[in-house]
Write a structure and sequence with these properties.
Elements: H1 7-13, H2 16-25, E1 30-31, H3 32-39, H4 43-55, E2 59-64, E3 67-72, H5 74-94
Antiparallel strand pairs: 1-3, 2-3
Length: 102
């Protein structure tokens, strides 16, 4: 049973704006302009966060004319969810294991 969680991915998703971006992209594929409108973030700030998400493999791009659309990679989120599910299952069984104090 796996009990470790992808700490780099947690760090990437730990930023509130990046988590908001991921939440929005879970609903639909959006371009940078849409994300600026939805989040209220400056375009340059948003682009930096999108780069981090792209480099972490959380989102992928889809060129469309002069725009770039971003879409969430559900397999990455599902893998992280699976790691947390494994961790929760490990915690359930660990409740039965108690190490004796020296």
């Amino acid at each position: 049973m796996m009990t470790s969680v992808d700490t780099e991915l947690i760090r990437v998703l730990g930023d509130p704006l990046r988590l908001r971006i991921v939440t929005l992209l879970a609903r639909e594929t959006l371009c940078t302009s849409h994300l600026v409108e939805e989040t209220g973030a400056k375009q340059t700030n948003l682009s930096n966060h999108l780069r981090v998400l792209r480099e972490a493999g959380v989102v992928e791009t889809e060129p469309c004319g002069r725009f770039t659309y971003y879409k969430l990679r559900p397999d990455v989120i599902a893998r992280l969810a699976g790691q947390f599910a494994d961790l929760a299952e490990s915690a359930r069984t660990a409740a039965e294991n108690k190490r004796a104090c020296p």
